[in-house]
Amino acid sequence: MNIDWAALGQVSGVSLVATITIVGVFTLGIVGTSARRSPAAGDATGTGTTGATAASAPSALARSGAYACFALCAAFVAYGIYLIVA
Amino acid sequence: MEHITLLIGIVIITALVFDFTNGFHDTANAMATTISTGAMKPKAAVAMSAVLNLVGAFLSVEVAKTISGGIVDESGIRPEVIFAGLVGAIMWNLLTWLVGLPSSSSHALYGGLIGATLFSAGTGAIHADVVMTKVLLPAVAAPLVAGLAALAATRLTYRLARGRDERDTAKGYRSGQIASAALVSLAHGTNDAQKTMGVMTLALITGGVLAPDAGPPFWVIASAGIAIALGTYLGGWRIIRTMGKGLTDISPPQGFSAQTGAATVILASSHLGFGLSTTQVCSGAIMGSGLGRKGGVVRWSTATRMFVAWGLTLPAAGLVGGLSALLAGQGTWGVTAVALAAIAASAWIWVRSRHEKVDHSNVNDVNSADSGDGAGGAATPADTGVLADAVLSVSPPPTEAALAASGEGIPAPRQESSRRPDQQPTTV
Q1: Does residue B55 sit at the A interface (CB-CB below 8 Å)?
Q2: What are the structural domain ranges in chain B?
Q3: Of the candidates A57, B55, B353, B380, which lies 20 to 30 Å from B272 by C-alpha distance?
């Protein structure tokens, strides 16, 4: 009985790193495209703290960075399809 | 196709039936969380999964070529044995579907084939070390690896998106989840449809229709793909409910993390030649994402039932397969008897499943009083205990809806203990 520890370790390592990377990159994309929560947001009324720049829309830079993140994720998906087909 | 004997024909039809059960048993893997987070409507989700399974079936035949070449010694295999193995696998798939537990269809197939071979050809024809390394070890590793990956990913995504409004990000997470689920569906079609193709090809080879080293002919590929797609479209709603709602409560970021983790693990393992069960990977990932959220819970009672089902898959499918093999080995009447018994048992399971119906309309409904056509609201309080007991014994774990229905529309509390038959809802 020879258990293929190398293959098991490889699968675990690759899966862990890849999952965290993809989820991380995608989350950065989401963070970049969504509005920052203003301090008074939530269910409270807008009386919020002093001069809150309420729900500031993401800057152009953040937005383009986010699109780059999504593009990277699309590339991951394409690679995944390639792995299935190959 | 002209030289196919009746027996080979029966084996091929049985293989397609197995493929069909495989499809509806495993819809949950790709689509359970997608449906429970609301990323897709139930019908749309299973339709997409079905199409991708069909496409996946045509993508590759590598797995089909290897299915026969490892676990059992194909020289000792006769069509009756394959038939018996398939019957064992189908029975186990239907039974686990009835109780709403996700279990590996591949393990059921292996178990059935192993049992059938054991009973008809003896222990010599089983490669025990292959069983250990290809079936048992992966069964332990799959949920651990996927669970760990999903747990870490869930933690990370909640941390990164800390300053964001959940309503604002949910849409993005849901889109990402759809992409991951699509990958899982595609990979499932490629892997699992091919297993059936492999079995059909094996039957054709043992029957002398195909040359020993032949690949699957086109009609085999097409019929296997269509059978798995039909099964997927039908949807194993009971299992979808367990995986999407029963194991843990899933929000969009968790669903995305779990599905991405599952897709990654499935692709990594199949690419690196380490076969993991799709079902076990997905269940593990869902539990991991449940643990990853602050305040998230995993319902360990449901999880335990699922683990028990995993442990039983191989021996149970093997036992049915083995007994069927003994009977089928008696000749034509034996095969006929096994076929009739299998049909009768399937019909019984189907009838039982109608008692508490779970379909696309109530798949997400764990907490609301949805009185289907089963244990209706007409039950008097005196019956409730008996009813709940009966429901408990056959129904998927999250039976709050059923209990609520039998308790005349009283919303059941969410605690596990509320499902005990001795604790009836007393409000109102």
Answers
A1: no
A2: 6-355, 365-428
A3: B55
